[in-house]
Amino acid sequence: MLLDGKKGLIVGVANKRSIAWSIAETLHREGARLAFNYQGERLEENVRSLAAELPGSVVHPCDVTKEDEIDGLFAKVKQEFGRLDVLVHCVAFARKEDLEGEFLATTRDGFRLALEVSAYSLTALARAAAPLMEGGGSIVALTYLGSEKVVPGYNIMGVAKAALEASVRYLAHDPGKRNIRVNGISSGPISTLAARGVPGFTRMLQIVRERSPLPRNTEPAEVGDTALFLCSALSRGITGEVIFVDNGYHIMGM
Ligand SMILES: NC(=O)c1ccc[n+]([C@@H]2O[C@H](COP(=O)([O-])OP(=O)(O)OC[C@H]3O[C@@H](n4cnc5c(N)ncnc54)[C@H](O)[C@@H]3O)[C@@H](O)[C@H]2O)c1
User: Fold this and answer.
1) pTM, full prediction
2) How many domains does the chain have?
3) Is 210 within the bounds of a domain?
4) Pocket-forming residues, ligand 1, beta carbon under 6 Å
5) How many whole angstroms from 142 Cα to the centroid of ligand 1?
């Protein structure tokens, strides 16, 4: 029970295939009590019925582009839990037209939206979480290799993930004095709602299976276990880091 008595907020469950859900199951198994958000009424029922599988969970709406909803979510967490030990950020969005075709065609609005939802939201959520993490806490964000290498079709999301990873490092600095750690997990491709919006995603899965040192695709539970490590005292000396959980795919040159 690595997280016995700990309180966590998981942002980004859409359905049972969400990486956020796999992380939630793992953290709960190790003793954490969890709060969840849902983005809009469309996802409310999904998230409520999943959260009901983990006794003691709390569910509240939050679209990360809306400051009042972020405030409402953290007010709810404070009221229910009193404090927060863990924040997991699993949120990303880009418009379909900004993932298709040439990166050159990325629109100003598309850029702004992708960066706001997928990168700025980490800072907004961390700022709200920090006052609840008295004595220390762990913040974990999900990222992807497209931040540092060109993955055709990932386009604007690659730029957003680069900003997210830089945010992980900058956020790790000052809150570090208060023992709040901030890290990223760079996951290999996993078939989820968001991933299926990336053109050529099935081919990405196939290439990774063929070329990774461990010749298979990433399982959500592998990401969940690494999130557990980063959220627990086992990783107490690690902050500002991005850990790859991709069966080694990123080390390959060919
Ligand atoms: N699936 C993969 O292959 C893969 C690989 C590496 C990293 N990731 C990252 O993992 C994270 C989780 O994605 P996933 O693959 O589990 O897909 P998912 O579709 O299950 O989760 C994406 C979540 O983002 C949320 N979201 C989007 N816009 C939002 C907004 N404005 N406000 C609040 N929430 C919003 C959605 O509601 C959804 O819950 C993302 O950051 C994604 O980029 C995914």
Assistant:
1) 0.98
2) 1
3) yes
4) 12-14, 18-20, 39, 43, 63-65, 90-93, 117, 142-144, 187, 189-190, 192-195
5) 8
Under 8 Å between Cβ of 211 and 248: no
Residue 253 belongs to some domain of the structure:
no
Residues in a beta bridge with 89? 11, 141
Cβ neighbour number for residue 177 with a 10 Å cutoff: 7
The domain that contains 66 carries what CATH number? 3.40.50.720
How far apart (Å, rounded) are the C-alpha atoms in residues 224 and 24? 8
The token pair at 112 is: 């702004």
Q: What is the pLDDT along the chain (254 residues), one digit of tens a residue?
A: 999 999 999 999 999 999 999 999 999 999 999 999 999 999 999 999 999 999 999 999 999 999 999 999 999 999 999 999 999 999 999 999 999 999 999 999 999 999 999 999 999 999 999 999 999 999 999 999 999 999 999 999 999 999 999 999 999 999 999 999 999 999 999 999 999 989 999 999 999 999 999 999 999 999 999 999 999 999 999 999 999 999 999 999 99
Q: How much distance in Å is there from the Cα of 81 to the middle of ligand 1?
A: 25
Residue in the structure block whose two tokens are 């359905």: 15
Domain that holds residue 180: 7-244
Is 217 a domain residue? yes
Other Cβ atoms less than 10 A from the Cβ of 214: the count is 13
Phi, psi dihedrals of residue 180, rounded to the nearest 5°: -100, 120
Q: Do the domain assignments include residue 251?
A: no
